[in-house]
C-alpha cells in the first residue's frame, strides 16, 4: 500500500480558502453637532456590519475546513492498494476499480463535495467583497456630504456678510432679516447633510439581515446619538 495521492488534492482545495481576517473597527467621532452625531451613527453601523460579516465568514470557513479535513482523514485511512493485490481482488470481484485507483469507493462523493465547498467559498468571498465595497462607497459619500455641507455654510456666511456690509449703519431691521435668513439656510444645509448621512446608515444596516430590521432612529437611540437640530 502507498499513501493516497488524493490527499494532495485535499490540501490544494483548502489552500484556495485563506482564513478571513478581521477588519479593524473605525474610530467613532465624538462631536456633538447633528452631522457629527449622524456620522457616528454611520460609523457604528459600519463596525457592526464588518464584525458580523467576519463572524459569519469565519464560521463558514471553519465549517469548510472541517469538512475538508474529514476527507483528508478518510483518505489517510484508505491508502492506494498495491497494484498486484488490487488486480487479483478486482478479478475475484472483491474490489472495485474505483477503490483500486483511488483507495475509496467515495471518490465521486468527495469530488462533488469539493465542488460545493469551492463554490461556497467563492460565493462567501464575493458576498464579503460586495459588502466591503458598499461600505467603502458609503464612507466616501459621507465625507463628500460633510464637505459640501461645510462649503455651503461658508457660502451662506459670506453671502450674509456681503449683504450686511452694504447696509446703512442704522438699518437694524434689514440686518436682523439677513441674519435670520442666513440661519434658516444654515439649518437647511445641516438638515440635508444629516439626512444624507442617515440614508447611508440605512444602506449600511441593510447589508445584514439581522440589522436591516432596525430603523435608523432606533439605531441612533441605541448608541445615545441625537441628530435633531434644536432651535
Descriptive notes:
This protein is mainly α. The protein is 74% helix and 0% strand. Helix 1 runs antiparallel to helix 2, helix 2 packs parallel to helix 6 and helix 5 packs antiparallel against helix 6.
Give the key terms:
mainly alpha; 231 residues; 74% helix; single chain
Quaternary structure annotation: single chain
Measure the end-to-end span: 85 Å
- What are the secondary-structure elements, in order, as H or E? HHHHHHHH
Mean pLDDT, rounded to whole units? 87
Task: Work out the helix count.
Answer: 8
* DSSP helix fraction: over 70%
Low-confidence stretches: none
For the report, how would you describe the main beta sheet? none
Radius of gyration: 31 Å
Q: Please indicate the count of domains.
A: 1
Categorize the overall geometry: rod-shaped
Number of strands: 0
User: What proportion of the residues form beta strands (DSSP E)?
Assistant: under 5%
What's a concise summary of this model?
This protein is mostly helical and 231 residues long.
Explain the layout of strands and helices.
Layout: H1 6-15, H2 34-76, H3 83-91, H4 97-102, H5 107-165, H6 172-205, H7 209-212, H8 216-222
Helix pairs in contact: 1-2, 2-5, 2-6, 5-6
Amino acid at each position: 500500500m502507498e499513501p493516497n495521492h488524493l490527499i494532495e488534492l485535499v490540501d490544494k482545495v483548502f489552500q484556495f480558502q485563506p482564513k478571513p481576517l478581521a477588519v479593524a473597527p473605525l474610530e467613532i467621532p465624538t462631536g456633538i453637532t447633528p452631522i457629527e452625531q449622524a456620522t457616528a451613527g454611520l460609523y457604528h453601523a459600519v463596525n457592526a456590519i464588518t464584525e458580523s460579516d467576519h463572524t459569519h465568514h469565519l464560521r463558514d470557513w471553519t465549517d469548510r475546513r472541517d469538512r475538508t479535513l474529514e476527507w483528508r482523514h478518510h483518505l489517510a485511512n484508505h491508502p492506494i492498494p498495491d497494484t498486484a493485490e488490487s488486480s487479483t481482488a478486482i478479478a475475484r470481484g472483491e474490489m472495485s476499480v474505483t477503490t483500486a485507483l483511488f483507495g475509496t469507493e467515495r471518490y465521486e462523493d468527495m469530488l462533488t463535495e469539493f465542488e460545493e465547498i469551492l463554490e461556497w467559498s467563492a460565493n462567501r468571498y464575493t458576498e464579503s467583497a460586495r459588502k466591503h465595497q458598499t461600505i467603502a462607497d458609503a464612507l466616501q459619500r459621507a465625507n463628500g456630504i460633510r464637505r459640501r455641507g461645510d462649503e455651503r455654510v461658508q457660502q451662506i456666511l459670506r453671502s450674509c456678510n456681503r449683504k450686511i456690509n452694504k447696509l446703512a449703519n442704522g438699518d437694524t431691521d434689514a440686518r436682523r432679516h439677513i441674519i435670520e435668513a442666513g440661519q434658516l439656510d444654515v439649518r437647511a444645509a445641516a438638515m440635508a447633510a444629516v439626512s444624507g448621512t442617515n440614508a447611508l446608515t440605512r444602506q449600511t444596516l441593510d447589508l445584514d439581515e439581522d440589522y436591516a430590521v432596525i430603523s435608523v432612529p432606533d439605531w441612533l437611540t441605541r448608541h445615545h446619538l441625537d441628530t435633531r437640530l434644536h432651535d
